[in-house]
Amino acid sequence: MDKVSPDCPYPGCFFCVMKEGNPSKRRASILKFFRELPSQDDDGQVLPISGLWNTAMAHPNDPEFIELGIFECMVALIWKGLKNRRWLSHDQNIYIPYYAAHIIGSYTMNMEEFAESAIHAGVTPPLVELLRGRLTWVEQRVAVRALGHLATYTNTFPAVASHGEILELAIQLAMSSLEIVYSHFYQYADRRLSYHCDLLTRGMGGVEMESRKAEEWASQLQCWSLQLINCFAFKPEFLPTICKPEFLVKLPGMWGGLVNENSPAGIGLLRTICHHKLGRGPVASCPGIIEALCNIARSSDDWQYMAIDCLLWLIQDPSTCHKVIDKAVPALVDLAEITNLGDHKKLGDYIVNVLQECLQSQGTGRNSISNHVKELIEELLNSKQRLKWEKSMPKEDLHIKQAAALVVKLEGNSLFSSGNIAGAASKYSEALSLCPMRSKKERVVLYSNRAQCHLLLQQPLAAISDATRALCLHSPLNRHAKSLWRRAQAYDMLDLAKESLLDAILFINECSQSNDPDLSLRQNKVPDYAERLVKKQMRAAWLFREAAIKHGGVHGEGDAGDIYGQESDGSEWETASESDIGNDGRAEMGDDDDDDSEWKNEDKRKDKYDKVTLKDLKHGYNVHLAEDQS
Description:
The chain is mainly alpha-helical. The chain has helices at 14-17, 23-36, 46-58, 64-67, 70-83, 85-89, 96-107, 112-120, 124-131, 137-152, 157-161, 165-186, 194-201, 207-233, 239-242, 245-248, 265-275, 277-285, 289-298, 304-316, 318-334, 347-360, 371-391, 395-417, 421-434, 440-456, 460-473, 481-493, 497-513, 528-540, 545-551, 562-565, 597-600, 614-622. The chain is built from 34 helices and no strands.
């Protein structure tokens, strides 16, 4: 390279080259730099590589470096690090394979033509070596990220799939990534590799910051492994490898956690698997998956629709329906009054239609429907028929029904206040049978109150069902604070920590925006009872919990992260004291006037549930994957 700053001590300095004003000379110098860098052994090579890393993240769609050979340069540097350990351990060269793989991943993130150039440059073999763990988990993380991007595109997937071990490696990494990061980095603070710490924190934090970033990176390692597997799952020939029971059973528990909540993780992969008939059989036969899908379907997180899709496809498939129907139908019935969920229009109507078809097509023997399931579906269909009848009723008659429901509800409040919880629950059921179907606000209150009764009667499943129905009726969807809190407590009774945690956090968020004096956060302070439950569930749902149980607790300076490893302090949290029933019903009951627009404006559209294509599935999985900026 010819252009060098007079003050720069390094001949051919990359940063000096980038200041070249003549575009032709600049391109020629960059081309020369990329060709010569892998063969050089000078100190300070990590500096231009880190500069390229920053450029790749800031301008991933810029074709200049692609055209000048950056992929070939990165490939050569990774191979050099793998084959020449003496060079790798010299100066700061240990950072270079990480940066090189990250650069490949950044430039292939958005542009298919860049991914094709990367494949032609031979990036796959060295990335596979990093994926195998030839260096450390830090390099595995960026390798699986880059391979996931390459596998996303139609034209580059075959090159990735031609390396048969990639899918198996990704599956093993998805299952073991949290344990690897915990045992190799998190557990022993005094044994952490210094370059790992530098990469995690950029020199901006101590042990605590390292531990928090390690949790985030461990989650990304798992989620990006799942993204890579998801690309294979669209091809039926790979489903037998993916659909092994020991892997499937773990998928519902693989989530991004609070540190990587934008990734669909395990439920996203399950949705792709369930879209194909070859995948539905193994899923339906795997113990525990259907219960987990039902919990996710009832949840209020961003991936609720993915679990609902899985349940609907399993119900509609004659070969799997009989295996899942007893567990899936109760959850789907609870969700039948959802209107729109994301891009899913009139989702509740579609659920009703599927369940109606299921009832009409019931067979005998193993394909027959149990009496309990049959009653649930018939009750749902009757409620829909009741809605149709009410549309033709005079408005005055509907107001009379609503007034009667209010009277019965107040009787329930009185019974609750006197300690007759079972009697109160019965009254709320009676009020629901009287209340017009379109009086959604009032029905939200009735379901939520009955959920509180179920909690006090130690009936968590019934409480979850009623709280879910209230949340589905509420506008906006899944945002009724008291129902969120009651469901969080019910999940806690069942030791479902993740579900309880998510509902508790949403409850706190809703309280912060509420005008209800019983709910609004005073001086921005989280209620003590909510804080205690959140802390308890954060311990129980901690990303490294299983690894910590297996390998022992955290050791080293400050025992970083020990807050999540400790047992709960056993403190109690409120139940009835937070009820809207406790103040003679005035906190919420009877105070929400129904919007007359619900009676006057009938949606005449007959939108069908959108048929999901493979393209939709890929978009639904990949669009939410958070891109790490480090």
